Amino acid sequence: MAEIDRINIPDVGLVGLKELAALGPDKIRALCEIVRDLPLTLNVKGLTSRLASALEVEKRAVSRFVTGALMPLNHLRVYLKLETPEFMELISNTLEKIATEKWKPEDFESWKVIVAELEPLFEEDNFFSVVNKCYQLLSNRPNPIQGVKILSELRPVYSEDASTVKALVLAKTLVVEYAEGETKQTIFFSLDMDDLRDLSSEVDRAKLKGETLSDEVASWGVDLLTYGQEGG
C-alpha cells in the first residue's frame, strides 16, 4: 500500500474526535482504564450509558466519540495495517490541515493535549477495535430483520344473499419487515396452526442451542456475544 500522509475524516468523525479532545487528559486516561476491564458487548446503547456515567459526561458526547471516531478509526487502522504510533501521527497530520465548521484550529490545540493519552484506545485488538469487528460481522449478513409480527383476522363467510354470516374463518399472517440495502421491505406469509406449532418449536430449539453454546463457550475463555440480548 502506498504511503499516505493524510486521510479523509467525515464530519461525524471530526465531531467524535472533538468530543474526545473535550474530555481532557485525565478523563481519557480514565476511559482507557474503564474499557481495559469491560466485557465485550454488542449493546452500544448500554455501553454508552455506562461510560457516560463513569466519565460524568453526556450520553450524546459518548455516542459521538464511540460510534463516530473510536470504532470506525480502529477499523481504518486495521485496514491500513499501521502500527499505533504511525496511525496517531497520520490522524494528527490530517487534523492539523483541516479547517471546517466541524474542526477549527483551536480544536487541534485541544487534540495535541490528549493525543498521547489516546494510544491505548488504538492499540492492536483493543476493546473498540474488537467490538467494531463484531459489528462488521453482523452488518455483513443479508436482509437483517427489522420487525416480525403475526396478525390474526376473523374473515366472515356470508350467505348467498349476503344477509347473514354463516361462518367465521380465523386467518393468520406472518409479517416480516427487513432491510434490503438502504430500503425497508415487507413480506407476508399465510400461516395455519401447524405452521405456528412449527415456528414455536424452531424458536424453542434456537434458544436451546444458544444456551448450550453459551455453556460450552464458558469453558473456552472466549466471549459469546448475542445481538439483542441484554449484556450482549
Describe the structure concisely.
It contains seven helices and three strands. The chain is an alpha+beta fold.
Describe the structure.
There is one protein chain. This protein is of the alpha+beta class and 232 residues long. The chain folds into two domains: 11-139, no CATH class; 145-218, no CATH class. It has helices at 11-36, 44-55, 59-80, 84-96, 105-118, 127-139, 193-218; strands at 145-158, 165-180, 183-191. Helix 2 crosses helix 3, helix 3 crosses helix 6 (127-139) and helix 4 packs antiparallel against helix 5. It is elongated and about 85 Å long.
Binned, the helix content reads 40-55%
Identify low-pLDDT runs. none
What is the 3D shape?
A: elongated
Number of helices: 7
> Which strand-content bin applies to the residues?
15-25%
Structural class: alpha+beta
Number of strands: 3
What is the CA-atom radius of gyration, in angstroms? 25 Å
Topology:
Blueprint: H1 11-36, H2 44-55, H3 59-80, H4 84-96, H5 105-118, H6 127-139, E1 145-158, E2 165-180, E3 183-191, H7 193-218
Helix pairs in contact: 1-3, 1-5, 2-3, 3-6, 4-5
